[in-house]
Design brief:
This protein is an alpha/beta fold. It is about 50% helix and about 15% strand. Helix 1 (about 10-15) crosses helix 15, helix 5 packs parallel to helix 7 and helix 16 (about 310-320) packs antiparallel against helix 17 (about 330-350). The structure holds adenine (ADE) and zinc ion (ZN). The site of adenine has 11 residues, from helix 4. InterPro entries: A_deaminase_dom (IPR001365), ADE (IPR028892), Ado/ade_deaminase (IPR006330), Metal_Hydrolase (IPR032466).
């Protein structure tokens, strides 16, 4: 069917897309939280699924993190991690996601006595099955919690490194998440340097609640390959110019920004402005179970709120592929498919 005639939903769904900013613990749906709590005999302070879902009203990042860390307490066994992760793959399969780079927070689990190996094994089973059965590839971003100490991040790295070889098909990157304000990038400069020496790709949350300075610091001190969020970069025009020049990707999460009150109204979101200036922005879901939408919902809400053209939606999908850590030869077929969609658009416009 000519590209212009399909619904916006179908159009976005058909575009090959990579999700680059996704916390696997943020995909735990309330139904699964209750199921796992019952199976693992963990008491929950909510009467039922609806009451828990009704609590998903946040005033800022910290108010979300409190609930998010509490929800993750139901994850105990390898099967729990597998079920959570495979449910995410089934869901993004419907959205036309072809590749995903998944963040996980080992400290949330190891601090409760869950072995690092349990987390790795559960995630890996789901990721390898998703590749075989759904054709979705994935990589992992092991993320440090920035409200904890540098020493704790080093300990976590040491606990994980013996598993690196067995999971070398998946674990290739390091991330930094949790409470941003008061936990600047420089706190983790040394552990990032070690990770760089070890050959990991590097990303970090910056410029979500924290200032534009944290984005510059993540680029210059942590030497990241991508910035997670980065929407507050706009407060520093020189930084924006540097991001355009270096084509540093920003993994933007619109529904997250709305739910955590980083923006008051999606019609004022700066995604389109950044895209039109030439910043390499991508669209992602962050913690879809908590923020009310998976990746396709995020594209849709931006298309509708910011009046994005179909050519711009193709550009966002293209950015997601080229900003991924997939090798060039794996990116190529997706980029060719996006070229095809663009040609269809051009054809439709010349015929109109
Ligand atoms: N952990 C999970 N989601 C996060 C977010 N949006 N910001 C920081 N840390 C997070
Ligand atoms: Zn995030």
């Amino acid at each position: 069917m000519p590209t212009e005639q399909v619904s916006l939903h179908t159009f976005i769904q058909q575009l090959p897309k990579a999700e680059l900013h996704l916390h696997i613990e943020g995909t735990l749906e309330p139904e699964l939280i209750f199921q796992l709590a019952q199976r693992n005999q963990i008491p929950l302070p909510y009467a039922d699924v609806d009451t828990l879902r009704a609590a998903y009203e946040f005033t800022d990042l910290q108010s979300f993190l409190d609930l998010y860390y509490a929800g993750a307490q139901v994850l105990i066994t390898e099967d729990d991690f597998y079920e959570m992760t495979y449910a995410y793959f089934q869901r993004i399969h419907e959205d036309g996601v072809v590749h995903t780079e998944i963040m996980f927070d080992p400290q949330t689990h190891t601090h409760r006595g869950i072995a690092m190996e349990t987390v790795f094994a559960g995630l890996a089973r789901a990721c390898r099955q998703a590749k075989a059965e759904l054709g979705i590839s994935s990589y992992w971003i092991l993320s440090f919690l920035r409200h904890l100490s540098e020493a704790d991040a080093f300990d976590t790295l040491e606990q994980a490194l013996p598993l690196r070889e067995a999971y070398s098909d998946l674990w290739l990157a390091i991330g930094l998440d949790s409470a941003e304000r008061g936990n600047p990038p420089e706190k983790f400069a040394r552990v990032y340097q070690r990770c760089q020496e070890l050959g990991f790709k590097l990303v970090a949350h910056a410029g979500e609640e924290g200032p534009a300075q944290y984005v510059s610091d993540a680029v210059n001190l942590l030497k990241v390959d991508r910035i997670d969020h980065g929407v507050r970069s706009e407060e520093d025009p020189a930084l924006i110019q540097a991001l355009i020049k270096s084509q540093m990707p920003l993994t933007v999460c619109p529904l997250s920004n709305l739910k955590l009150k980083v923006v008051d109204d999606l019609r004022q979101h700066n995604l389109a402005r950044l895209l039109r200036q030439g910043v390499k922005v991508t669209v992602n879901s962050d913690d879809p179970s908590y923020f009310g939408g998976y990746v396709l919902d995020n594209y849709l809400v931006m298309a509708e709120s910011l009046d994005l053209s179909r050519a711009e939606l193709i550009q966002l999908a293209r950015n997601s592929i080229t900003a991924s850590f997939l090798p060039n030869e794996a990116q190529q077929p997706y980029l060719e498919r996006l070229d095809y969609f663009e040609q269809q658009l051009d054809k439709a416009s010349t015929q109109a």
